[in-house]
Amino acid sequence: MKLVVVSAGLSVPSSTRLLADRLAAAVGQHADVGVEVVELRDLAVGIAQSLTTGFPGPALDAAIGAVRDADGLIAVTPVFSASYSGLFKSFFDAVSGFDKDALAGKPVLVAATGGTARHSLVLDHALRPLFAYLRAVVVPTGVYAASEDWGAEGLAERLDRAGAELARLMGSVSGNGTAVGLAVGTADTPVVVPFEQQLAALRER
User: Fold this and answer.
1) pLDDT, tens digit, for every residue of 69-88?
2) CATH class, 2-163 region
3) Sheet strands (E) in the chain
C-alpha cells in the first residue's frame, strides 16, 4: 500500500517533519506500506504560481498525483494564528482545484505541531472540517505535539494509536472509496462494509 505524507514545516530541521516521520513509522508498525513524503516548503513557489495561472508545474503536478493515488494520507501542519498554515491550505486548494475527487473516501490522519498545548484544538476546529469538506475519511485519533510533548509520556501512545487506525482503514478501503471486508467462510469474497461500522470498530479497540 502507498502512504503519502504531506509536511508543511518551514524550517530545517522541522518539528512538523519530525512528527510526520514518526507517524509514518507508526503506520509502518501495523501495515506494509511504501512511504512518499511531500515537503510543501519545496513547492511553495509552484503552489503560488498554480493559484494565479491555473496550471501546476511538474513538481506540483507530481505531488498532486501522489496524493490522488495514495491508499492513505498523513497531513501535518504547524499552527499559525490558531489554524493550519497558509501553505498547507493552499496546497490542498490546489489538489481539490485540479481534481475535486482526489481525497474522496481516502483515509487521512491529521496532525499538527505548535509551541503550546493551547493550540491543540486546531485538530478539531480546523483540520477535521477541511478534510470532511474534501470528503476524506479522517481517522478518530489526531495527533497534536506541543514543544513540551517531545520526550514526554503519552506522545508515543498517541502516535501508535493513530498509526494503527490509519493502517486499518488503509487495509479496508478500496480504490473507489468503498470500505471492503472479507466474508467469513468464503474464499476471500469481498463484501461491502459501511463506513459507520468500520469507524465504530476502530473506536472499540
Assistant:
1) 999 999 999 999 889 999 99
2) alpha beta
3) 2-7, 34-39, 72-80, 83-84, 107-114, 137-138, 143-146, 180-182, 190-192
